[in-house]
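Let's practice the habit of predicting before peeking. Look at the sequence and jot down your guess about where helices and strands might fall. Then scroll down.
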Amino acid sequence: MSTETAKKPSVLFVCVHNAGRSQMAAAFLTTLANGEIEVRSAGSAPADKVNPAAVEAMAELGIDMSAEIPKVLTTEAVKDSDVVITMGCGDTCPIFPGKRYEDWELEDPAGQGVAAVRPIRDDIKARIEALISELLPVGK
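Done guessing? Here is the structure:
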């Protein structure tokens, strides 16, 4: 592991199906952090595909999630992340000392149309912007 990689903070977003909230959060963080933060997302029971309404809502902001595939949560993903964020979906993660754990209470976009997903998307974006300001202080 290079020293450059070691200094880059890493975030794991966890949601049961890894199809909506965690995928939107990962897409926002990937886009808004400009590669300065390592991003992962996963779920304990991944869906077959990403929620189409979430894909559409993100596309409205110019972020393409259409190629994303839900991934299964692994102990390694948690171990390799500095910050682990669950999305208010009751998922449990292995706990490791020295990690930062947060639970974001977010409405579930599953089965909802894009109009219902937009406010969830916008809530996630605001939380991601705050997270970036904490992980990447200005003038670092």
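How did you do? Helices lie at 3-7, 21-32, 52-59, 75-79, 114-135.
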